[in-house]
Amino acid sequence: MTEAIPAAFEPRVFSGVQPTGNLHLGNYLGAIVKFVALQKTHPCVYCVVDMHAITVWQNPAELQRSIREVTAAFIAAGIDPKSQIVFNQSRVHQHAELAWVFNCIARLGWMNRMTQFKEKAGKDRENASLGLYAYPSLMAADILLYRATHVPVGEDQKQHLELTRDIAQKFDNDYADRIAELGLGPKFFPLPEPIIQGPATRVMSLRDGTKKMSKSDPSDLSRINLTDDRDAIAQKLRKAKTDPEPLPSEIEGLKERPEADNLVGIYAALAGTTAADVLAQYGGSQFSAFKAALTDLAVDKLGPVGGEMKRLVADPAYIDGVLREGGERASAIARPVMDAVRDVVGFLR
């Protein structure tokens, strides 16, 4: 018997962060800051997506450390694990189970269009894991397992969310009669909406304004890690690539100046303002003066987060307790949804 599931889609946010190394400013501005804001207006499910992490090989001990570090970053930034759900993906086995169903719903043509696989696999595609290829199907399962209606994503993940919507729609179309017969419809899955907002939705490398800030970049000077101290932040911003011209006074002046555009966007995001307001204040300034102001702002905003992260990581028992409790709460939502999917597709249980 299918457990009762609300017919209407209740507003719910889902998003996740991979535990694959040092968290940096791009993770913070592009994702975690949004997570903190959204918990004021929506019930939220925030996931440390450790199953996604192993699409490329991970040292097991390092993976455990990174899972705890991402959880610590969530809490240090202001996510409340009591009012919201914070857990690691592998605790809830329904993620993998629903992903397999979606592997049988998604079409190869859809998966072949995913640009992130091409970027991550590079020229050696034949040696990429099947998990890396099927990554977007698991992401769809992550979201739809909680029947999430909104997903904060970066521009680079928007294509995956569009695939999630395609999978949801095809599942509902393929099994429309069965969904109606079980009283689960007219639609079982929502079509989740992306939340892409803010002046720094895509934070770029400090060494190359045309490339995304990345934890995999071999140069540590390319990123600001959340655990960097004041001296490290100051050094990285001082050495950040710029051009010889002063800052423009208008947004139009940032075109064809990727490094300037990146630094202005970072300042605006940290200050909670707009790039236009930043240029109104600093237009005409030399980069040396602007970088000094940006350093003070970055230290002021990131220092408390990094300090609290270090304190929390030093207490793994607390972190593990948060993840355990969050996993239980996530399972309570996921279990009836997956049971209903089993009934819809015709599995016996």
Describe the sheet with the most strands: 3 strands, parallel
Uncertain spans, ≥5 residues at pLDDT below 50? none
Question: What is the terminal-to-terminal distance?
Answer: 9 Å
Q: Beta-strand level of the residues, as a percent range?
A: 5-15%
Radius of gyration: 21 Å
Query: Which structural class should the secondary elements be placed in?
Result: mainly alpha
SSE diagram, text form:
Blueprint: E1 13-17, H1 25-38, E2 44-48, H2 50-53, H3 60-77, E3 85-88, H4 94-103, H5 108-112, H6 115-121, H7 130-144, E4 150-152, H8 158-174, H9 176-181, E5 193-195, H10 230-238, H11 258-271, H12 275-282, H13 287-313, H14 316-345
Parallel strand pairs: 1-2, 2-3, 4-5
Helix pairs in contact: 3-13, 4-7, 4-14, 7-8, 10-13, 11-12, 11-13
Structural commentary:
With 349 residues, the chain is mainly alpha-helical. It is 53% helix and 6% strand. It is built from 14 helices and 5 strands. The strands form 2 sheets. Strands 1-2-3 form a 3-stranded parallel beta sheet. Strands 4-5 form a two-stranded parallel sheet. Strand 1 (13-17), helix 1 and strand 2 (44-48) form a beta-alpha-beta unit. Helix 4 packs across helix 14, helix 7 packs across helix 8 and helix 10 (230-238) runs antiparallel to helix 13. The protein is globular and about 70 Å long. The mean pLDDT is 91.
In short:
The chain is mainly α and 349 residues long. It is built from 14 helices and five strands.
Keywords, please?
mainly alpha, three-stranded parallel sheet, two-stranded parallel ribbon, globular
